[in-house]
Amino acid sequence: MKAERFVLFCFLILYLVFQPVVSAIANAGNATLEARLAALEGRFVVMQSDYQQQIASLTAQINLLQGKAAGATDRPDEQQSLPATVSADSADAELLALRQAAAIESQSAETSLPEKSADAGRKFIAGDLSRQAENPEISIVGDFVYRLQSIDGQRKNSDAMLRNLGIHYETYLDPYTKFKGAVPVKEDISNLGEAYITRFGLTPNLNFTIGKFRQQFGVVQRWHMAGLDQNEFPLAMRRVLGDGGLCENGISLDWQLGSSGKTTRELTMQLTESTNARLFAGNTRGMPHMLLHFKSFRDVSADTYQELGLTALAGVNDQWSVSTAGVVNTIDETRPVYGFGLDFTHLWEPTDNMRYRNFMWRTEFYGVRKEILRPDNGDRGAITAWGGYSNVHWKLDRQLESGLRIDYFEPDSQKYAAVPGFALSPLAVVANSPSEWQFCPYLTWQQSPWVKYRLEFNYKSGNNMGPDERRLMLQCIWSAGPHKHDRY
Questions:
Q1: Which of 98, 329, 347, 402 has an alpha carbon within 20 to 30 A of 457's alpha carbon?
Q2: How many whole angstroms separate alpha carbon 133 and alpha carbon 426?
Q3: First and final C-alpha spacing in the chain
Q4: Cα(220)–Cα(483) distance, rounded to whole angstroms?
Q5: Separation between Cα atoms, residue 421 and residue 317, nearest integer Å
Q6: DSSP code for 285
Q7: pTM of the complete model
Q8: DSSP-assigned beta bridge partners for residue 324
């Protein structure tokens, strides 16, 4: 009994001694726990605040980017009628808005990246041209003419013909060399018109051409017939150089002689074979002829320029047929042929209205002196013929053009020109004071850059040069391909 009382008394003493310590420990633990809870609660509040701010910012961005298209089209009174409360599925709407905003942010981040250079994204496969790029550019030009005519002493009064179907080729062979070709196809024959290459920049001011080409005797002699402003080449050019003009195989050198002030000069030298029957019918040794053309180009003003050209030609004939007492003999003797030309062009074309208005005046002269052996007795002689034209041309609007060309030609007068079998016409005739002239007004309508129509009237007369001729011609020229109506 005494022992039990002693044990209880010991427990009581221990409780009284350690009770403050236990209470302090418990109080300390509770304080620590409360502090941690308070810290967690504070962090949660901060996160909630940040989250709400982000939501508000993203919502504002979405509204700004989307423009609130539906709300922008509503009237103010309709906008006031919209409900102010958020729908029950606002959480889904906020999630969708967040996804859209994330996509927008991703796109803006990509656009803000520095752009790649042109070479950075280029993929080099091969150093040569593709098969398609190797093909030349091809254009087809059609030239159709219908004529009503009245010629003194002739019965035929009309005809129609597809005068030419030209197939034109063009391509760059390399960065320095360009190829051009033209094959005229007619109803009864097809031949090679032109085929040549031009090497640009052989020297800083020199271009080199080799092949078959129309020569630079004046201005329009260089052009194709379908590229003319009228139906035919000028009368004097056809009489002096032949109906087809000068188109030969050879080489051409084009020098840029530099400029002084507003004037630029150019010199062309061509060395070609002599197959033109009008000038070189007696060239049997194949001696080439040389042509020089000097051109001076001057800018008079911003709207006006002038071009002056001088041409000289020299070649030979070396064989002649001479009729003596009814016997035809062949004599070998070299005799020269000289040609000369002068051309002048004045063009007014307002820079602010050039597609609708312009005025052009062009004049050219052609001449030839052909030293020969007379066909009647074999003595030395010479024939001289010359002529020219003057052309005024107006652009009335973008599609309509009009003009007038006047031609004149004067051949030589020689009694031996009528020796049978040795006709020298049209460079020389028997008649006294021979001459002929032609009057050519025309009107051209450009239906489009590919099709144009021309109505032209020609009246030709003269003195001791055959019957008068009157022709009314309707011409249609069309072009299929990239070059449209290139003149050459």
A1: 347
A2: 49
A3: 145
A4: 18
A5: 18
A6: S
A7: 0.72
A8: 327
Helix, coil or strand: residue 210: strand
The predicted model gives 337-359 an average pLDDT of 95
Token readout for 488 is: 């050459």
SS3 of residue 131 by DSSP: helix
Q: What is the mean pLDDT of the chain?
A: 84
For 222-230, what is the mean pLDDT? 94
- Write out pLDDT tens, residues 76-126: 444 444 444 444 455 566 666 666 766 666 565 455 445 545 555 555 454
Buried b (16+ CB within 10 A) or exposed e, 409-439: bbbbebebbbbeebebebbbbeeeebebbbe
> Any residues with CB less than 8 A from the CB of 482 and at least 6 apart, and which?
137, 139
Beta-carbon count within 10 A of 40 CB: 10
The closest of 367, 458, 385 to 426, measured between CA atoms, is: 385
In 10 A of CB 479, how many CB atoms? 22
Report the Cα 67 to chain-centroid distance in Å.
Answer: 47
Whether the upstream peptide bond of residue 234 has omega within 30° of 0, thus cis, is no
Cis peptide before 467 (omega within 30 of 0): no
CA–CA dist 108, 366 (Å, integer): 73
Cα–Cα dist 318/387, whole Å: 26
DSSP classification of residue 229: S
CA distance 437 to 230: 16
Q: Which amino acid is at 453?
A: Y
Which class would CATH give 198-472? mainly beta
Between β-strands 380-395 and 400-410, what pairing exists: parallel, antiparallel or unpaired? Answer: antiparallel
- pLDDT tens, 385-423? 999 999 999 999 999 999 999 999 999 999 888 887 777
Buried b (16+ CB within 10 A) or exposed e, 374-399: bbbebeebebbbbbbbbbebebeeee
Residue 185 and residue 183: Cα distance in Å, rounded?
Answer: 6
Looking at residue 12, its pLDDT comes to 55
Cβ 451 vs Cβ 418: under 8 Å: no
Residue 473 identity: M
Answer positive or negative: Cα dihedral of 80, 85, 88, 93.
positive
